[in-house]
Specification:
Elements: E1 2-7, H1 19-26, E2 31-36, E3 49-50, E4 60-61, H2 63-73, E5 80-90, H3 93-102, E6 105-110, H4 118-124, E7 127-130, H5 140-151, E8 183-184, E9 187-188, H6 198-216
Parallel strand pairs: 1-2, 1-6, 5-6, 5-7
Antiparallel strand pairs: 3-4, 8-9
Amino acid sequence: MRIDILTLFPDMFVPLRSSIIGRAEQKGVVEIVITDIRAHSKDRHEKCDDQPFGGGAGMVMTPQPIADAVKAVDPDHRAHRVYLSPKGRVLSMPRVKALAKDNKRLLLLCGHYEGVDQRVIDLYIDEEISVGDYVLTGGELPAMVLCDAVIRQLEGALSPGSLDDESFTAGLLEYPQYTRPQVFESLEVPEILLSGHHKNIETWRREQALKITRKNRPDLLNPPNQP
């Protein structure tokens, strides 16, 4: 998969190439291309924002630099184009899996300030995605969240079986995990995990996953119909 990211702040994406994502890129599982929107501005000072029509606080990203950046990196509209926005559909595991499965290319547009000119969305964007019901300064952090979630689903990014028991994989949150030492600050590892009885361990983990989900995310036990 190729992922193009359009941003005013390319330096923010340095951490994206660490850990699992960095290794996935080195193995050729994914190619991440960062494009500076300012480089496509026709303003001599590379200005990319202006005051909103109708008044209001803050500035709005102007359409020309964004449109030219999109056309430069995806001239034939082969990528699925996503604008990271609090107005978008909230990102979920089913949507993450669909983005990973159905697309060979993604283009992610990171807004900033009060957002981008609506005409850019109308003309050049396929989907708006939010990472939660809150507002951030810009779309860079949401873009990294989306990249991380999607790339982990690509074949070869993780070792086989790594995704099998994660939170949301089976509609539940993940069960508790333990490692050495067996006793830490007077707390012991549950005895069942030391028994070697795999069927009993599997039953215990299922019970713990249900317990944690019921406590922290009861909505997952009775999910609404997916659109």
